[in-house]
Write a structure and sequence with these properties.
By secondary structure, the protein is of the alpha/beta class. It has six helices and six strands. It has a six-stranded parallel β-sheet with strand order 3-2-1-4-5-6.
Length: 222
């Protein structure tokens, strides 16, 4: 994978390669979105369970190990980790946004203190690392994360998590609209299918973010 030429959409075919990117540690955070226990439990229905096997395989074998490595290296190099998780403040979920109240797969009732709403143990925040709770797809829209990042002098945001075509995409677009420079780590993200994952990266790349591999991101943190 070469981040300068991969995941090019129709709009960016033939456009010159982007300039080199640097990620200075004191102006960069890594934002891990929604890698929570609820998504790692196989569905009870056998047909649904079979459909989600590729996603769970990618999460267990690629996304979670890679994100753990990303967090370890960012901590070592002085890049602050920040986490966002879907969690409502009211046990009945009255404070959720409409998108999380609608019937169907996206219906989510995850009170903040339940085990299901917690970040998976392998990626658990450490010390005073910031965790924001959201009842929206975007990690900015429903939280004070925008203010936090500005107060910390952050200009660059490295994004990892799930789902590429939903909360990742919404967060990336919001960050871009707020003029943050965004890098999405391709092999630290997943969607329900690899096809959805690849297509969404193609859609958001070059305009809302730059898509890189874990190895490419680590080369640029200084």
């Amino acid at each position: 994978m070469n981040w300068k030429t991969s995941f090019r959409s129709f709009y960016y075919e033939g456009v010159p390669e982007p300039e080199e990117i640097e990620l200075p540690a004191d102006k960069t955070v890594v934002l891990v979105i929604d890698i929570q226990n609820t998504y790692m439990a196989p569905p009870e229905d056998s047909r649904e369970r079979e459909r989600w096997v590729p996603f769970l395989d990618r999460m267990n074998n690629i996304v979670i190990p890679n994100t753990a490595s990303l967090l370890q290296e960012c901590r070592r190099r002085g890049v602050e980790p920040v986490f966002a998780r879907i969690a409502c403040l009211k046990t009945d979920g009255r404070d959720r946004s409409l998108s999380q109240k609608k019937p169907g797969w996206n219906y989510l009732l995850l009170p903040k203190d339940t085990l299901e709403s917690q970040i998976v143990d392998k990626l658990a925040p450490q010390g005073d690392e910031i965790v924001v709770l959201k009842t929206t797809d975007s990690a900015l829209t429903g939280t004070n994360l925008r203010l936090i990042l500005r107060n910390m002098g952050i200009e660059h945001v490295i994004v990892a998590g799930i789902f590429t075509d939903q909360c990742i995409s919404s967060s990336v677009r919001s960050l871009a609209d707020e003029s943050f420079n965004v890098v999405v780590v391709e092999d630290c993200c997943a969607a329900g299918t690899n096809a959805l994952h690849d297509k969404e990266l193609e859609i958001i790349n070059m305009i809302y973010c730059h898509v890189m591999s874990l190895a490419e991101v680590l080369e640029r943190i200084r």
